[in-house]
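INTERNAL AUDIT FORM
Audit reference: QA-55
Scope: verify that the stored structure record matches its stored sequence.
Auditor: D.O.
Record contents follow.
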Amino acid sequence: MSALPGPVPVPSPRTRGGATRLAITVPGLRRALPGLRGVLPGPRQASIELVAGLVTALALIPETISFSVVAGVDPAVGLSTSFVISAVIAFTGGRPAMVSAAAGSMALVAAPLVRAHGFQYLMAATIAVGILMFLLGLAGVARLIRFVPRTVMIGFVNALAILIFLAQMPHVFGNGWRVYPLVAAGLAILLILPRVTKAVPAPLAAIALLTLVTTTFDLDAPTVGDEGALLTGLPLPGLPDVPMTWETVRILLPYVLALTAVGLLETLLTAQIVDRMTDTRHDPNREAWGLGIANFVAGVFGGMGGCAMIGQTILNVSSGGRGRLSTFAAGGFLLLLVLPLHAIVGVIPMAALAAVMVVVAAMTFDWNSVRPKTLRRMPVGETLVMIATVAVVVPTHNLAYGVVVGVILAALMFTRKAAHLANVTSVLDPEGGVRIYAVQGPLFFASTGELVTAFDYAHDPQRVVIDLSDADVLDSAAAAAIDDILHRYAARGQTAEITGVSHTSAVLLRGLKNEKAANS
């Protein structure tokens, strides 16, 4: 967002005549116009943003209701949450055009908390998540997303898709035979209609047609209204009714940490996708603390946790949304559609929403990552990282656990590979009086063992030169290993000297010597 210029100069009281005042004021207005154009879209772009927001709102309604069911709360909670978060993040977020709302990933994490302790604890957790996200955003933690390997990201997305799919199975099986043809018809509409026309969103068409069929023929099938109360008015602020004790903190803390990690991770990953689609950049720290404010407000207004929604964001950007107006419009249109139509929303069959979410799960899954051609080309270690991430997430239903395990496993594999990158070669002076060792590659704790044993202490001549021009001393363990090499030569009465030390390496080596001098 462009910053507005400074205040327009105020004419001196001694200035007389309107012409002089106009000459002073108009340049200031001219300087202000580019800033205003950067903040407010023009009429043509505004119309595109509004249409994109409307299309996104239509897609938000069924998924938000489904995610509410996944979390174990009334559909009204998810709908009000989506409105509040979309409206707030439109102003506070660091990635324009990205849509944040009540998301499935956070619903999956929150579901056990709701089952065990009730909705009031979820409300308290959402407020705490907002505060933690805000603080992490101010601290700059959002930039750590660059340390998450691509294979972990793929595992994260695939695990999310599997969990979304599994969450729909209770709505497909065990509810009577009528549900099966409804789900099949919904899947057929969702898969065939986009190939015929894109004028009507396929999820909206599937929901509308299946609702018409169930109401016309009075079919006995579970509906959205059976899942709980729908949104009939604007949400009101309030505080959660939970005891202010250490036991409450003990209960909430694991869920708050997991919800924060999952929400930030999915949001920052989605922001990178939008960056690639629009060839622009986002502010990750602002997005983090902006999402924290949105979650805090959502919790105060009785909502559940929310974050960026990959499917709706892609739909918004593909529909032409590029600015904050499209995000705000998505939440505003959602509210305008739901409030007067809550009676109609209540008779939507759950089979229709299950079909929509099954397709969403299939679109979310990265099928290219499991193709035989890709698996043959991808290193075995990276495949294991992806599989480990999925294997941890699916049974635990905790996306944060899988990401942590995946990052640790990827770091261990990288360390093992990097430990063998260090290489030591040597050449003997033609006169036989000096041996020159050339050390190449990163030197750190994992490569110190091989480094120390790479020198021929017993057979080297009186003078040894160790060239570190192509090496980097990365930690104190490597500095200690080099110091050990020098002491081994000194113990044999030989002279060893180091050349080509970079500034960073020299700082570590001097720091080790100063530490030894202080301890001696």
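Auditor finding: record pair retrieved intact. The two ends are 58 Å apart (CA to CA).
Action required: none
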